[in-house]
Amino acid sequence: MADIVIIGDGPAGMNAAAVVHAHGHRPILITESRQAGGQGYRRPSPGLELDMPSLMGSEAGKYLALHARFEAIRSAIDYRQNTLVWNIENRTLHLLRDGVASTQSFDALILATGAMDRIAPVPGWTLPGVFTLGGAQVALKDQGCFIGRRVAFVGSSPLLALAAQQYRKLGADVVVIADTTPLLDKVAALPSLANSPRTLLRGLAYLGGAWRAGVPVLNGVTALAIEGDDHVIAITLKDSGNRDRRFACDAVALGYGLKPETQLAELAGATLVYDETFRLWLPRTDAYGRAGPGLYLAGDGAAIGGADAAEASGALAAHAALADLGFAEPGATMLGLRRRVGRLRAFQQGLARAFAWPVAQIGALADSVTLCRCENVSVGDVRRAMDQELGPVEINRVKAMTRCGMGRCQGRVCGPSLQEIVAGHAGIAGAAAGRLRVQAPVKPIALAAADAIS
Amino acid sequence: MTRSGSAEAQFIRAVPRRGASVPLTLDGQAIMATEGESVLAALLSQRGFLRRLEFGGEPRAGFCLMGACQDCWVWTETGGRLRACTTPVAAGMALSTATPALRP
Fold it and tell me: What is d(CA B73, CA B69) in angstroms, rounded to the nearest whole number?
């Protein structure tokens, strides 16, 4: 029997497992998490009295259906939770669970590794009380906690309004929803969003709700500083009318859209290509999710598309894998899924324009701002290294000289901003700055664990 | 600039949690958590930070909360480390905000 391994148990991985199971096979589903559902559809941790369907609002039906489908197959698949995949080499997965290392081979590998928030630095962003926007939602869904009593939602993302709505619903004080993309740019992107009116209307409804509740909703802002000594006390912004605004708060949720977790895809041999719309390096796949021999990518880890696209692309990748292994005939289901995934991801291209990555604002950051929070490297440290005689203009050389991107997160947080700082300071295109290369282990592990295998 | 780290809780409980009490220690002080809580939520519900940065000692409280940024690793009294956002509390955990090498 062939080993079909799926990594990640968000909507893409859950659906991939369901399709493989429905074809009479027993997939191996490996995940670091303890609760299925990924970040967006995550189940609350045990004992939490959280009414998830109420919190999920219009998405409650999908959330419940996905988890019901998964519960029905859960005991029939090889489901390995709390298990880190820290390397992929010679078609072998290197795993770590509770300090115990092991390996797993595969005939087909479906990566559904999801995404994290893309972050642009702002003075004061390393203060306790500043969290990612996704983190603000995880705190609520996974732990039933607000990240603070009075929360500012700042960045550029349709998820700012969604998270703020979830916080308000449960009683938090939302002090401002501030988006760096100007309103005019959002209006200009409307035609490309019109083919998914439901998502658009939902976003507008959240914003309308906040506005009616008296929450300031600002577009076209520049984040000036997060103030505080050892914790957040306020955020200051320049609004679209060039006025300085100050909002007292004790927490900030920061997010500029999502960034795929591509580390395992890269180690497995996927090719990464610079995408000019997202200004990110994204793995190349065909329309079915194939990224190499026996390698399939699905969900936000392949291309940002949201939960609906993740569900569909997970099923699609599983169908493609089964067809390639000769276990199923490619049929109408596969074609339908392919069209659906294409349509949903095209919508995200429009969203990336309406909620743009603030390239100019990042380029204008002061030298004193922290860029790499792991290794405490400032924007100025990077610029000064580049200014030396024969100074580097390639991102991996900048990393080697400054340690920016070399810390424990492996550039997950600083990478996209470092890309812009390097490109901006060298006066070259984003792609020309190069790409931060990934290295195993993709997350920190004890040396003893690596020794146990090698 | 004190940079001492805030004693005030950063996290605010939004919905109740059922579960047994789980005793832990942090820097030698006894604290109570609830079964099912992450180490991060347990600590930030009682104080304003998790650890001090190895470079300069500024307080940190985690960032991504989903196991990606690795900002929330805390030390154990026995010299081990754990990622606070993805580790559930367990009875008898002895945690430390200081890096072993920096301890008095």
Answer: 10
Residue B6 lies in a domain: no
Number of domains in chain B: 1
pLDDT digits (tens, 9 = 90+) for A265-308: 999 999 999 999 999 999 999 999 999 999 999 999 999 999 99
Instruction: Examine residue B88 and say whether the peptide bond preceding it is cis (omega within 30 degrees of 0).
Output: no
Mutate: best of B70, B74, B86, partner A, most A CBs <10 A: B70
Which residue range forms the structural domain that includes residue B31? 21-102
CATH code of the domain covering residue B41: 3.10.20.740
Asked if the Cβ–Cβ distance from A374 to B71 is below 8 Å, we say: yes
Residue of A nearest to B21 (CA): A47
Residue pLDDT, tens place only, A228-268: 999 999 999 999 999 999 999 999 999 999 999 999 999 99
**Those residues with Cβ within 8 angstroms of residue B22's Cβ, 6 or more apart along the chain or in another chain:** B32, B33, B34, B35, B37, B42, B89, B90, B91
Cβ-based neighbours of B39, under 8 Å, separated by 6 or more: B33, B74, B82, B84, B85, B87, B88, B89, B93, B95
Direct distance between the N- and C-terminal alpha carbons of chain B, in angstroms, rounded to an integer? 22
Give the nearest partner residue to B6 out of A45, A117, A231, using CB atoms. Answer: A231
Is pLDDT at B104 greater than 60 in this prediction? no
What are the chain B neighbours of A231 within 8 Å (beta carbons)?
A: 6, 8, 10, 48-49, 59
Contact at CB, A171 and B6, closer than 8 angstroms: no
Q: Do A47 and B34 touch (CB under 8 A)?
A: yes
DSSP class of residue A43 equals P
Chain A environment of B37 (Cβ under 8 Å): 45, 143
pLDDT in tens, A358-368: 999 999 999 99
Domain contains B16: no
Beta strands A217-219 and B51-52 are unpaired
Say which DSSP state A48 is in. B
What part of A 403-422 touches B (C-beta under 8 Å)? Answer: 407-409, 412-413
Out of B36, B45, B69, closest to residue A47 by CB? B36
Q: How many Å from the N-terminal Cα to the C-terminal Cα in chain A?
A: 28
DSSP string over A259-282? EE--HHHHHTT--EEEETTTTEEE
Find chain A residues with C-beta within 8 A of B56's C-beta: 376
Residue B59 lies in a domain: yes
Q: Which domains does chain A have, with CATH numbers?
A: 4-116+259-351 (3.50.50.60), 119-256 (3.50.50.60), 365-433 (1.10.10)
Q: Are A299 and A321 in contact (CB under 8 A)?
A: no
pLDDT of B101 reads 63
Q: Do B34 and A46 touch (CB under 8 A)?
A: no
Per CB-CB distance under 8 Å, the chain A contacts of B69 are 116, 132, 373, 409, 412-413
**B84 domain residue, yes or no:** yes
